[in-house]
Amino acid sequence: MASASLQFFAFILALFGVFGDIAATLLPNWKVNADVGSNIITAITQMQGLWMDCTWYSTGMFSCTLKYSILSLPVYIQAARTTMVLSCILSAFGICVTTVGMKCTKLGGDTDSKNHACFAGGVCFILAGIFGLVPTCWYTREIISNFLDQTIPESSKHEPGGAVYTGFISAGFLLIAGVIFCSSCFKRQQGAWIYPPKQHHFPPTEQESTAGYNLKDYV
PROSITE patterns recorded for this chain (predicted)? Predict the structure, then answer.
């Protein structure tokens, strides 16, 4: 019962991780630059994401521009696009597989099949967490290095946006969920290896004892 409830808790974490992963991939605020200037009325907020760049004006106007060219983008943005999409695909596949392998569901067949499916889903979550953690760390490193560079003007410097924090939290949820799923299946199999089923030794049959008794009577 405890293992089933722990798997359900890990499944909830994985769901939050999947939704956060998708949101972080689509949000345009991976890095933010607020330029107030001399007049608060003309203040603007520039946001850059993986797929589009957006500008928000203090007057209420909001405009976005899609990044159509792939080859013109920096390497870390191209890598972030690829790894975040892979993370979303793996995490969604892990949700489908763990739904079959969880103990609280009636899918997946016998216990061994459900354990294998649960373990495979946990591996998918771990890989999805790694694929989601790498681009967020790389993207944050680029933002910090540009911010600390004295040769770059202040108007071109940015800070990490909400999408980066969402990516970090989602990757953590996916990693925790994957470790819980894998460890729950591994402990069950390890217990079966350490404590093998006892072999019952049956006493000799009555026929043998009776045959021995008859031989003694003839002597």
Answer: CLAUDIN (PS01346)
Mean of pLDDT over the chain: 81
User: What digits encode the pLDDT tens for the residues 54-87?
Assistant: 888 777 788 888 988 888 899 999 999 999 999 9
Domain boundaries, the chain: 4-27+71-194
Supply the CATH classification number for the domain 4-27+71-194.
1.20.140.150
- On whether the pTM is more than 0.70, the answer is yes
What one-letter code names the amino acid at 25? T
- In what order do the strands lie in the sheet containing 31-35? 62-66, 52-57, 44-48, 31-35, 159-160
Q: Exposed e or buried b for every residue in 27-49, given b needs 16+ CB within 10 A? A: bbbbbbbeeeeeeeeeeebbbbb
With vertex at residue 215, the alpha carbon angle to CA 213 and CA 219, rounded to the nearest 5 degrees, is 115
Q: What would the pLDDT profile of 7-60 be if each residue is shown by its tens digit?
A: 889 999 999 999 999 999 999 999 998 665 555 555 678 889 999 988 887 777
The gap from C-alpha 137 to its chain's centroid, in whole angstroms, comes to: 15
